[in-house]
Design goal:
By secondary structure, this protein is an alpha/beta fold. It has 11 helices and 10 strands. Helix 3 runs parallel beside helix 4. The two termini are 26 Å apart. The model has no long low-confidence stretch (mean pLDDT 94). The structure holds S-adenosylmethionine (SAM), 6-(5-methyl-2-OXO-imidazolidin-4-yl)-hexanoic acid and iron/sulfur cluster. 6-(5-methyl-2-OXO-imidazolidin-4-yl)-hexanoic acid binds next to strand 7. The site of 6-(5-methyl-2-OXO-imidazolidin-4-yl)-hexanoic acid has 16 residues, from strand 7.
Length: 321
């Protein structure tokens, strides 16, 4: 395909022009790109597990796991490796092909806990699942060790535009996110990087966030687009839920800008009806979180998702490993 497919120099104005196209034109373009670069009618099913929940020292305003806020989340010790692997086995039996493990850490610290995470990765791989982790900041050496253990993908979101970031998190800098992403990339691990909409940002902030993603070389292999799940006790608890069409626009624009990426319809599906979810799939989303829980908040039942896929004639994407 033309060099358009891997452009890294999109301007914010160009991105906004795509984002603001008449909706049906936008979705048509996104679906055309999708069909050119991805198998038709396939959706990747990824199951999440929080292996270390709560008491995170960061103050991300959206996050129920931050120790700065009083939310429904009770801090928990790290889950033993055997239990994590039981959950991975169950996820595989239910139809997931990727298992993603999250920890509420600011950064990974070398030592027994990180060693356990490496064992989890090895175990998940031995089950024939793709393995993904999201553990906070990583050094180059930690990224290398995760890769050696067999990790396929690392999730580390930029979350929003550089400008809006300061209003959402003050305990770390946007640049620190980019540093970890560099370490992940250099270790040969696929990058999963996206963000959240519905945190009081402008459309230009959303376009600037997408610009940050397309500037990365290569583009992230996976781009999660989360709709904020407003959680009681967090500073963003009273944010109005985003209109589903805004999510469709964001997904379609990400699909057009990053044709090779898996665009993930992520948090927020609980508040979307079937038709809105199908429109997101039509607009180029080809991955969802599958399983009744995200990390600490609910996700649709597996029976809901199985029916959604069956009614749309979609099949799970086989694992790449
Ligand atoms: N601590 C690690 C980190 O921040 O990278 C990993 C876990 S963190 C919960 C992973 C991602 O979940 C965040 O970057 C954010 O994009 C998303 N997230 C967290 N809370 C959310 C919420 N209430 N609504 C939508 N997305 C959320
Ligand atoms: C991502 O972008 N979304 C997922 C995954 N990466 C780790 C997490 C969503 C979390 C939603 C809030 C919760 O369940 O705690
Ligand atoms: Fe901690 Fe990650 Fe939640 Fe931020 S998003 S508070 S770093 S768990």
């Amino acid at each position: 395909m033309s060099s358009q497919s891997t452009r890294h120099d999109w301007t914010v104005a160009e991105i906004r022009a795509i984002h603001n196209l008449p909706l049906l034109e936008l979705v048509h373009r996104a679906q055309s790109v999708h069909r050119e670069f991805h198998p038709k009618n396939q959706v990747q099913l990824c199951t999440l597990l929080s292996v270390k929940t709560g008491a995170c020292p960061e103050n991300c305003s959206y996050c129920p796991q931050s120790s700065h806020y009083n939310t429904h989340v009770e801090p928990e010790k790290m889950i033993p490796v055997a239990e994590v692997l039981d959950a991975a086995r169950r996820a595989k039996e239910a139809g997931a092909t990727r298992f993603c493990m999250g920890a509420a850490w600011r950064e990974v610290k070398d030592g027994p806990k990180f060693d356990q995470v490496l064992d989890m990765v090895r175990g998940v791989k031995s089950l024939g699942l793709e393995a993904c982790t999201t553990l906070g900041m990583l050094t180059a050496d930690q990224a290398r060790r995760l890769r050696e253990a067999g990790l396929d993908t690392y999730n580390h979101n930029i979350d929003t535009s550089r400008e809006h970031y300061k209003k959402i998190i003050t305990t770390r800098a946007f640049e620190e996110r980019l540093e970890t992403l560099k370490n992940v990339r250099e270790a040969g691990i696929d990058v999963c990087c996206g963000g959240i909409i519905g945190m009081g940002e402008t459309i230009d902030d959303r376009c600037r966030m997408l610009r940050e993603l397309v500037t990365q070389t290569p583009h992230p292999e996976s781009v999660p687009i989360n709709a904020l799940v407003p959680v009681e006790g967090t500073p963003l608890a009273d944010q109005p839920r985003i209109d589903s069409i805004e999510l469709v626009r964001m997904i379609a624009t990400a699909r057009i800008l990053m044709p090779h990426a898996k665009v993930r319809l992520s948090a927020g599906r609980q508040d979307l009806n079937r038709e809105a979810q199908m429109l997101c799939l039509m607009a180029g989303a080809n991955s969802i979180f599958y399983g009744e829980q995200l990390l600490t908040t609910p996700n649709p039942d597996t029976s809901f998702d199985q029916k959604l896929l069956a009614d749309a004639g979609l099949e799970p994407l086989p694992p790449a490993c």
